[in-house]
Amino acid sequence: MTSPPPLPVLYSFRRCPYAMRARMALVQARQNVELREIALKNKPAAMLEASPKGTVPVLVLPDGTVLEESLEIMNWALSRHDPDGWLKADPVESAFLIQRNDGVFKQALDRYKYPDRLPEADSATARHICEDILKDLERRLQNNDYLMGKTKTLADIALFPFIRQCAFVDRTWYEGLDCPNLQRWLQEHLESLLFQIIMKKRELWTPEALPTLLFSL
Length: 217
Fold this sequence. Notes:
- 33% of the residues are buried.
- The longest helix is centred in the middle third of the chain and has 23 residues, at 91-113.
- Strands 2-1-3-4 form a 4-stranded mixed sheet.
- It has 9 helices and 4 strands.
- The chain is mainly alpha-helical.
- The protein is globular.
- The chain has helices at 17-28, 45-50, 70-80, 91-113, 123-140, 154-169, 171-176, 180-190, 193-198; strands spanning 9-12, 34-37, 58-60, 66-67.
- α1 packs parallel to α3, α4 (91-113) packs antiparallel against α5 (123-140) and α4 (91-113) runs parallel beside α6 (154-169).
């Protein structure tokens, strides 16, 4: 009997927003992987050998190819199987939303969320930058269910974990924003089966551990 082909290996950290969106795309694409949950304070040697920069997610393909960026992993998975057409949106607009999220918004979010870690940063100014971007997303959602129209796209999934992170810093502030459509959009993602699957708690990986799949076959 022929053995099944080996699966890609994903090094991940459950609460990392970059790793979240990579896992969501992998599940959406029905691309299973061997999931290796790691501790960021004690990164395994196998992961650092594959990707010396030491950040998650890292996807190691069976042929030895290493994908070190979450968007790279998302596009790789969805290019293989994209059942709901997440990659069909306007690429220019999608790139703008994702680049702003990963750049200006993420920088401001870090300064807002971690004022003690970044004492030179102005947390209030950072939160104001976040608010301006959240309100732009609210405007985009006034006449559409999703950020780029009537259907979910790569941009929705790429931004969602970061909007979640921002909302959870101070729930009272976030819920007090005049952003009912964005709040509805975020809640839909939080309650989705896709999110429940990728947030299942896992034991930390060790070289001796039995392989763990990202999702059940």
